[in-house]
From TrEMBL:
Superkingdom of the organism of origin: Bacteria
InterPro entries for the chain: CsbD (IPR008462), YjbJ_sf (IPR036629)
Residue span, CsbD-like domain: 4-56
Stretches with biased composition (Basic and acidic residues): 1-14
A Pfam family assignment: CsbD
Organism: Sulfuriferula multivorans
Protein's recorded name: CsbD-like domain-containing protein
Residue intervals passing through the bilayer: none
Family: Belongs to the UPF0337 (CsbD) family.
């Protein structure tokens, strides 16, 4: 795993927590912020996944 995969997963989890807390207290704003953080985390993890795939492909070419 690379840093983008780790940080992305952490953001996704934090976003889910924030969204859940927002639901619990009835805050649409916190729910929206949580969803935004989840999307950012998923995107960052996907960037990390692509980097790993490229790295693996390059290893197999040599």
């Amino acid at each position: 795993m690379n840093k983008d995969q780790i940080k992305g997963t952490a953001k996704d989890i934090a976003g889910k927590t924030q969204q859940g807390a927002g639901k619990l207290v009835g805050s649409k704003e916190q729910q929206a912020k949580g969803l935004k953080k989840q999307v950012a985390g998923k995107l960052q993890k996907n960037v990390g996944d692509v980097k790993e795939a490229i790295k693996d492909t390059n290893k197999h070419k040599h």
